[in-house]
Amino acid sequence: MSCPQCQRVDWVQNVPAVMSDGTHGGYSTGTYAGVGIAPGGLFPVAGTSTHEYSHSSALARSLAWQPILPSASRLFAVGVGLGLFVLLLYVLCIDSLRIYPPSGSPGQVMVYLIGLFMVPVGLSVPVVAILIAAVKRSNRSGKVQAGRNRARGVWSHAYYCHRCGVAYWPYPTEPGVPHRVPLAPAQFRWHVWNTGGYAKL
User: Fold this and answer.
1) Which end of the chain is less crowded, N or C, counting CB atoms within 10 A of the terminal residue's CB?
2) Mind giving me the DSSP string for the chain?
3) With 0-12 CB in 10 A as exposed, 13-18 as middle and 19+ as buried, what is 188?
4) 141: number of CA atoms within 13 Å, CB side?
5) Contacts 24+ apart (CB under 8 A), 102-106
6) Distance from C-alpha of 198 to C-alpha of 146, rounded to nearest angstrom
7) What is the pLDDT along the chain (201 residues), one digit of tens a residue?
8) DSSP state string for 100-123
9) Rounded to the nearest 5°, which phi and psi values hold at 125?
10) Ranges of each domain in the chain
């Protein structure tokens, strides 16, 4: 269990313990006051809110066994909501063509159609971009979910030397993972994430 760099054990700690020591969380409560508007006029409003927080030290973040990935659900919700709005605009444009068919020369009809569909087509671009970003984020999360148990297994057998600032595995764990080799936290994290199959996300 001794550090491969300094050969001592007095400042050596299991990586999960380092992570636990460097991560703190809790709840905070706040009181808020304001003014509400009702049919009868203005009225005072008071309320409270509870906020959950979590803080990780730089060392704990550098030894993490999986990346922190934002959820794709909000992006999907925004993309679908905007998509429905754009779909409604297309329906209104097509309906207006049915009620008021364009007349005139082919050039005038073309200008009319371009003007009519400019807003829906312009709004379709960000909707598609948001949905593509949500799908990519979801795929990334899926890769992490698929390999996280294997990565955590390797991660949980590692040690960290606070004197030398290196992480290491005292004995072999997986093929391709070096043992008795001092690794900087970034190198250590790469080996763990590579074991999980998500080092290149």
Assistant:
1) N
2) ---TTT---TTEEEHHHHHHHTEEEEEEEEEEEEEEEETTEEEEEEEEEEEEEEEE-HHHHHT-SS-----SHHHHHHHHHHHHHHHHHHHHHHHHHHHS---S-HHHHHHHHHHHHHHHHHHHHHHHHHHHHHHHHHHHHHHHHHHHHHHHHHHTT-EEETTTTEEE-SS--STT--SS--B-HHHHHHHHHHHHT-TT-
3) buried
4) 12
5) none
6) 9
7) 899 999 999 999 999 999 988 888 888 888 888 888 888 888 888 888 888 888 889 999 999 999 988 889 999 999 999 999 999 999 998 898 888 888 888 888 888 888 888 989 999 999 999 999 999 999 999 999 999 999 999 999 999 999 999 999 999 999 999 999 999 999 999 999 999 999 887
8) S---S-HHHHHHHHHHHHHHHHHH
9) -60, -50
10) 12-30+49-196
Identity of the residue numbered 65:
W
